[in-house]
Amino acid sequence: MERAYKYELLDKYIDQELSDKERQELDALMTEDEEFKEEVEVAVMMNASFNVEQKQRWAKLLEAEATKTSVQPSQPTKTSETDTDQKETKVRQLQPRTRWLRIAAMLLPAVFALFLYLFLANSSQTAPQMADHYLSNRHQAPTITMSQGNDLSQNWKTAIKAYQEEKYESAANLLEPLTNSTNATAEQHFYLGLTYLYKEKAEPVKAIQQFEKSQQLNPAQYSAEGNWYIALAHLKNDDWTKAKPLLEQIVANKDWKWQTAKEILEEQE
Amino acid sequence: MNATEFDQIVKELQAGNEKAIDGIFIEHYTYVLDWLQKKYQCDIADAKDVYMDGFLKFRRAILKGSVKHGNIRGYLITIVKNIWLQKLEKNKRSVSLDTLETEQADYYLGSKSGLYDEDFDPLTKAETANNLSQQKSNQLDAFQAAWTKLGEKCRRLLKGFYIDRIGLKQLQSVLGYGSYDSIKSMRRKCFNQLKKKSVDLLG
Q1: Which residue has the higher pLDDT, A254 or A237?
Q2: What is the distance in angstroms between the Cα of B98 and the nearest Cα belonging to chain A?
Q3: Fold classified for B133-202
Q4: ipTM of the complex
Q5: Which pLDDT band holds residue A46 (cuts at 50, 70, 90)?
Q6: Residue A43, Cβ neighbours under 10 Å: how many?
């Protein structure tokens, strides 16, 4: 039953339960042993794939339970008192089993709506709905290295903070003057594009303009990511004719998010 | 559910039937979500996430034999509570720019190790696959494709070892290997196959 200590550390790493001392131990092991380092990376991927699969399965399970509880047992027709009693008894006997499910369904309609929104992949989803689904996982906020820290403008730092706190309206207001300057960076244009998409009243057309600028300024960094978000912006704008060729290009090149792009293309067909 | 039924569920889960615990998942879902919301005022989306993450840990606890019939709900509550508190702690640490700068400073000054690079939160990032760098994202895609190409025997072994976290000695009897050396050698062989297929698919 026992696993070697290094695999216990691996388990805790995946569960994010390492103490500081254990973190150092694992780090040292991974530095000394290239094979073990590879095992760690593969184990992370294995667990991530498995977890996603399980969660999707459970979400569908909950959805199926919700559907079951919406089907009411039919009323028995009266043929004789005895028959009726027996049938009514059967209905009453069913109720304890289904009652808690009905209560759960009444209490949690928003949860099931969320499941349908997040997990139900079918062609009846509109393009904007599909875009919202894929945009719901936010792109990581920009990082600031120590060497940059003192050189960065206050507005850019404040904009990053607003982005981290998901205050996209504020972030956009801070980023707009930055991107209008001649010194604007590709990163600033990229994040402005993201804030336009994440805002409550998204502005996909403006988002696309910003992504394209980031790609012009730094194609190496933003070509692939930009294409993905431009495709989502077209979907958000309900323009499948523009989103489709871009998604096909992402799949053909096996660029960033190519498997997700493939799923979108398959859903739409 | 009585003790015998629970033992049967455990056996089925050990044999690879993931659906064996679906009933338990459904049975405790509403109660645990209500508990989380009342106790910590977390919103329903967070409560759902925490329940799912918690149930994954609960599943492993069942495989380890840590869960007994009769303490299922209590066990689940303990797990989700710890997950929620961990999340709160993590959110507190990552919310302010000043904190971010402090973390970065610690990293560059060397007081924290390589595990604090941008992919330290490996499982969450890999699960969402959204915040990974392009290279990592492609690696994940290649890995998932390679996994489906692996033989069933290898998948069961690797899943048992790396996902279910069962030791090789126990896996030896569960999967019917003749000796400890043979399962150890097979694990290495299957791992290398998976690695090779992933690399081939990555191109």
Answers
A1: A237
A2: 10
A3: Arc Repressor Mutant, subunit A (1.10.10)
A4: 0.78
A5: confident
A6: 23
